[in-house]
Here is the input.
Amino acid sequence: MSQAPDNLQIESWQRFFAMQANNSAWDLSETSLDVLNQPELLDAAHASAWHWRAVGTELHHMRSVMLLALVHARMNMGPSAWAYAEKMKNFFEAKADTPDWEMAFVHSIYALAAHANGKMDVFGMAHQQAASSLASLKDPEDQAVVEKTFQLISKL
Here is the structure.
C-alpha cells in the first residue's frame, strides 16, 4: 500500500485514492468467490476509475476501464462488462508498446466479459488467446500475477 500524501494538494490525494481503490478492487476481484455479495468490489472499481479520470494519464484511465470490465464480468453485468472490455481491448491492441503481461490480462478479461454477455463464440477464441498469451510470458512473476485472473475463467 502506498503512503498517504503529506501535503494538501488535491491531485496527490486523488492519485492516492485511485491507487488504493484500484488495489482493493483487484484483490477482491481475484480472491472473492461470492463477488455478488461484495458491493465494495464494484464501489472500489468505480472509485478508482473516477479518481484516475481526474488525475491519471490515458493509460491509467484505460487500465481502470480494464478493471471495470473484469469487475462487471465477475458480477454478471454482461452488457456493461462487454462495453468496457471492447473499449480496453481496442485501446491496448492499438498501442505498439503494450507489454506482453498486459495483453495477457486483456485477453483474459475479454474472455470473461464475453462469457458474462453470452458471446460464447467470442469467449472460446478469447480464452484460447488468453491461454496462449499467458503461456508465452517469460517473466515468472508476470505469469503468476496474470494467472490469478486467468484462473477465473476455469471457474465459469
Summary: The chain is about 80% helix and 0% strand. The two ends are 31 Å apart (CA to CA). Residues 10-31 form the longest helix (22 residues).
